[in-house]
Amino acid sequence: MNNLDAISPIDGRYRSKTEPLAAYFSESALIRYRVRVEIEYYIALVGQLGVANLSAEMTEKLRDIYRNWSSESAQRVKDIEKTTNHDVKAVEYFIKEKFDCLEFGSTLPRELVHFGLTSQDINNTSFPMMIREAHLETVRPAYCELIEKIKALANEWRNIPMLAHTHGQPASPTALGKELMVFVYRLEEQLKALDNVPFSGKFGGATGNLNAHRVAYPDVDWRSFAKRFMKESLGLERQELTTQIENYDHLAAYLDGLRRMNTILIDFSRDIWTYISMNYFRQRIKAGEVGSSAMPHKVNPIDFENAEGNLGLADAILTHLAAKLPISRMQRDLTDSTVIRNLGVPLAHTLVALQSLMKGLGKLLLNEEKLRADLEDNWAVTAEAIQTILRSVNYPNPYEALKQLTRTNEKVTAQTMADFIDTLDVDNSVKDRLRAITPHNYLGYAEEW
pTM here? Predict the structure, then answer.
């Protein structure tokens, strides 16, 4: 399919940015994960029952069925599905076909493929595996790269004083580096929480009780087998009490964790956008780029706008998935089946956003002159410092005195503050402390983190 013909922008316009996720979330990838689960289960089951002597070489050739995956393999499964009208059953028949192509295939107990399982034992292990591997190999590294980029800029601008704004109004000064480190801190805290969410799945037969396994081989401890298989062969925790489908609670927690990180990044995108609009940052200009079809001078903060839009889309889908998936009528209904196929969509929008933020941050040029000018233009913000020192020496009604001085439509300047300090009935040592305060140095611990 030509990218220009795609319905979704993540497979069309943004295909170059989202292509790494195709290895985890495409239809071919889902089929491959299902085959992988079936093959690994078969190997573990044969070993548990001792019904066939699989050598190390034979085991690796079985694994090659999913390791040597191709578009032709995926198409063959889809062709079988046209007859079965069941996607997981098609996988079972595909594997049995592959057995026929192996030189030792006739020695394999064929009916142990998909033995005792329902389709959800395959789906509810395949999806957690794809999420875990996509997260560890693609999504988490992208978050970490962005965090490190923000951290590097924060260190570079650690000692750059900046006028803070609360409610959009000038407020006690801060440092640019510290304001960026707030986002690093928030993201790292949420990443820790995300890292603590286990990747788990369901493996328990038609209604979660391993009925078929126990009735066929009553002497085997199937619960221990299932737990061991999930951990050692698939890298997942087993949900020990389930219905036909997995509980999806851990998956919902993971999706909620991504949503929280993305929400922080929406906040970040809007702040940087605002700093650009305030001229605290300029942007590197690339030859040939156009900011507006009508206004030649425009250099728009498009990367941060793109990031905000894609993060919003991602969060909307993440919210729906996290709220919907843990709910299923009785033993199960099929609403989870169609919804869960969209797992890759919010991750794709997230990946687009993370790349846009990296690109946007790489364009930022600090306009230190504008930052200094804004501080110099807002001497009223030193009123907090002055009234607090006056409080500490028990000066009467200092808040009210500074309020009368600064809460006017008259501009407060360095001279305004100097004249006010001269009128105070306090020791000269206190006046010296007050005169030393400027909007450029009244920073608290903003440079120390």
Answer: 0.92
